[in-house]
């Protein structure tokens, strides 16, 4: 921190974009042009951080209180429901906090990181956890995208364009044509893909990833001798996955099932807003405890909110998608202290930091160095990914706004001109979307999208996972 | 002391002379302004390393005295930093910073009467990330080993911690895609006579070379600022000799000539402009960073470019960009900030200048160079 300026990392995804946050009564975003991951450049979400960082207030059952009181009350409720408590940390906080939280989870309940690592062979965990350096993306000769780079991980776009300038061919496998791609294929046409040892597959891995799809991508890369890298949606996804690799952890789907069965009654979310991902399950909880640095949809539903400093004021370590160790920017340890109160112990930052460095395999936090991570080979997993057989599909394009529940200017679905013609939709009008009797009317945008697909970058309330079969009409 | 006079000056404090660039005059003038209450605050760059410095607004004289010297790899942007803050402030500024501040003044977000601008001669700045790569690729040195940098006789020289100097001509660097930011290459404002003072090392000759700053007083405020520093005992000044004045003018002329050549090289006339603009903008992700960073834009969140634009529209070129092309045709100062911050590397400054160059030439209007209102401000519905 220099004066009122924090040198920090954008919490929008795991890309590791550096920026300055200036506190001037209100927050201002400033561009940190020396940042190695993004050269100071920011996407829509990064530019929206003053909105994202709305300060949270500590609350117990609707009454405002202090952080300490909220943490003590959380400790009571966790102790009284021991055995039916779930601890969820998706990777939105520092390694040190995540590690302390993991210790807490091991004492009182089960740790959920959201991803289904347990359903995937152990020899692919490292490949899923740590991506390749961005310089390797720029140097690739053939890049195959299984993401929408513009919407999901916008700062990868310039790396792809730089690769293209150097002669790379870019193939996109998506429901929509990508302007930067030399070749646009649809997901159903993956078999037409011609991969070689010079190919690099870029996909993503997150709590709503289809495990069979992940396996099939890993097998695709393995069988062709191609490289594969997974991008991730949370600021410290990589750190969280490395630290929890040997811990017993469960997925988001498992959490929903456990809540629905009644085996989980208390949920403690560390910097993780999953309200939009599982609203029905959240409503069934006896205790929803949220520890966070900023207000969001879930803080309004929580029985207990433990509010501390936001990420840009925290002390600790973040690991970006390449494995670069970065500092979030501040000196605050309020989150760690609250976890100590709940655990009935004191979490010492320095010893946690030493453990983190050892587990990650680094000697210092130096954002200008990409540590050499092991990239073990793996056996091609057996995959049974089935293409969706519905006539019309609604596909969710998960992006930083969606994961954080922050509103964006995208209250529309994208669809093709052929669909517009077939349904006789009117310019400036809406399209009706029906799922199991739930009817929605949405504005639409004409885009080069697969003819039987609607794309949405905003949760519209009828989704069942990444792909939802729907009916559409005028 | 009055407008039009020229001086050579240096700090009276030895440590500032050693640490600051060219005798530490600028740092001392800023500190004196704060110390003697000519202003309430000063903008300084707090150096983190040779490639990063954070601009901060301070009221602490010691903080000013401890601030950075010359940093070519920190393309600052001060106009937006001080806008809408109602400050009585002094600050150092490159030519484009000065132009941005003056344009904000015309738009009533900065009170120019309360703003003391120390202009810095500028041959161009470099993007820090590009500079780091350039050091490794062209100079074969680690960025962490760099101790200092300077530009001399057309060469960019880096000094490493072992005391060695590493020099490559700027022409060679720019041929390989490194060196100055593109907008700096064709910028013609080398000595900022639009600021209250214009300072730099061009024209400092003989024994004083490297130890003093050449100052030109451009306004009554500039005279007040410099006189205050002399009266407060922060700086010493003397008149430059004719040789120095001539050398300064010669360097200025040569630099401006190079800029004009670059301008011709970058802005080659083209056919099918519409297709060119569509292609360049096809990767836009609607982040709005180019507007946020633009030192001449003062509209805030509610503006025509954002209000006329809806992400659900499927136009081949967004209304956001079309409105900005129109707005910037008379107001773009070519600072390069929009290109610097574009997350998908659209060469936005080049696109804006494609409109601005002919319009500003036709209207004989250079934004930020004086207090003339932007021509489009004067357009009425019945015109």
UniProtKB/TrEMBL annotation, chain A:
One of its GO terms (biological process) is respiratory electron transport chain. GO terms for molecular function: 4 iron, 4 sulfur cluster binding; metal ion binding; NADH dehydrogenase activity. It comes from the Archaea. GO terms for cellular component: membrane. Gene3D superfamilies: ADC-like domains. Residues 3-55 form the 4Fe-4S Mo/W bis-MGD-type domain. Pfam families: Molybdop_Fe4S4 (PF04879). InterPro entries: Mopterin_OxRdtase_4Fe-4S_dom, Prok_molybdopt-oxidoreductase. Keywords: 4Fe-4S, Iron, Iron-sulfur, Metal-binding, Oxidoreductase, Ubiquinone. PANTHER family: FORMATE DEHYDROGENASE H (PTHR43105:SF14), RESPIRATORY NITRATE REDUCTASE (PTHR43105). This is NADH:ubiquinone oxidoreductase chain G-like protein. It comes from Candidatus Methanoperedens nitratireducens. The lineage of its organism: Archaea, Methanobacteriati, Methanobacteriota, Stenosarchaea group, Methanomicrobia.
Automatic annotation (TrEMBL), chain B:
Its EC number is 1.2.1.2. Coiled coil: none annotated. PROSITE patterns: 4FE4S_FER_1, 4FE4S_FER_2. The keyword Mitochondrion does not apply. The lineage of its organism: Archaea, Methanobacteriati, Methanobacteriota, Stenosarchaea group, Methanomicrobia. This is Coenzyme F420-reducing hydrogenase, beta subunit. SUPFAM superfamilies: alpha-helical ferredoxin. Residues 275-305, 323-352 form the 4Fe-4S ferredoxin-type domain. Keywords: Iron, Iron-sulfur, Metal-binding, Oxidoreductase. InterPro entries: 4Fe4S_Fe-S-bd (IPR017896), 4Fe4S_Fe_S_CS (IPR017900), Co_F420_Hydgase/DH_bsu_N (IPR007516), FRHB/FDHB/HCAR-like (IPR045220), FrhB_FdhB_C (IPR007525). It comes from Candidatus Methanoperedens nitratireducens.
